[in-house]
Amino acid sequence: MSDSNNISSTLPPAGWYPDPHGGSAQRYWDGAQWAAADATPASIAAADTVRRLPKLKWWHWTLIVIGVLVVVSIIIGGINGGRDSARSAAGTTPSGAASAAPTKEAVEEVKTVVVPDMVGSTVAEARGMLDAVGLSLTASDAGDDWVVTAQQPGAGSHPAEGLELSITSEAPKPVYTLEQENALGAARSYLDLTGFSRQGLIDQLSSEYGSGFPIDVATWAADAVGADWNAEAVESAQSYLDMTSFSRQGLYDQLTSQYGGQFTPDEANQALTAVGY
User: Membrane-crossing residues (predicted)?
Assistant: First the structure.
């Protein structure tokens, strides 16, 4: 043991020396042995560094790996935080979807117009309401005194572009005197009983043996009752045939006679055709 120690203490220190095998080149002595003939100062320094590194145990490596993972997660979190901040500053959503730029049509305000409530007013009044808001009522066959019963669209605000306005109207209800109302009621009652011609109904309404209305009131009632005189002639012809037998000419004479039905020739002929003559 003492001999070995003495030998080690007599060896030269590590360094570069002339190659022991001869030649002009130098060779590195590490204190115990010669380095390879082709070794360079750089490779020797690297080998020396590796040799000097301490050997680590398994738990040393575990701590190193954990530390590296923590550092990497911190770096990634910082990068993502920077991206989120950039998205917030740019006004984008977290998913990165770009907001669609508003179109020109969406920016422009939709022009509207307020349609007035015209139901219950006359057609003339409705036109005045529409003129006041820049609208017009066209293609209406109703009289100015007709009453608006419905409108399309309804009252309220509507887009002005493409607006189509229409109304439904009806003739105003007539205002009758008491005598006219009674004459019209009597005319309806007579027509419900049997067939009458226009002249026959006027005579019945104005006769002193009938209703006794003035001739002008009786005439007005006969025209206002809305009777179908052709249908009345057919009803009258059938009544005559139900009472007795008539030839075609005899029935014609009965329908047109001033003492009979007082129907016009056209009304009588249509009635004859209707009953089979």
Answer: 58-79
Task: Using DSSP bridges, classify how beta strands 166-170 and 147-152 pair: parallel, antiparallel or unpaired.
Answer: antiparallel
Cis omega (within 30 of 0) on the bond before 153? yes
Residue 207 is assigned to a structural domain of this protein:
yes
Judge if 189 and 157 occupy the same domain.
Answer: no
Domain at 141, CATH number: 3.30.10
**144 plus 189 within the same structural domain:** no
Q: Report the distance separating Cα 212 and Cα 201, nearest Å.
A: 12
Q: Tens digit of pLDDT per residue, the chain (277 long)?
A: 545 555 555 778 877 777 777 767 777 777 778 777 777 777 777 666 656 656 667 767 777 778 778 777 788 877 776 666 656 555 554 444 445 555 555 546 788 889 999 999 999 898 899 888 888 876 567 888 899 999 988 999 899 888 888 889 998 888 899 999 999 999 999 999 999 999 999 999 999 999 999 999 999 999 999 999 999 999 999 999 999 999 999 999 999 999 999 999 999 999 999 999 9
Range of the domain at 147: 109-170
C-alpha distance across the termini of the chain, in Å: 164
Residue 113 lies in a domain: yes
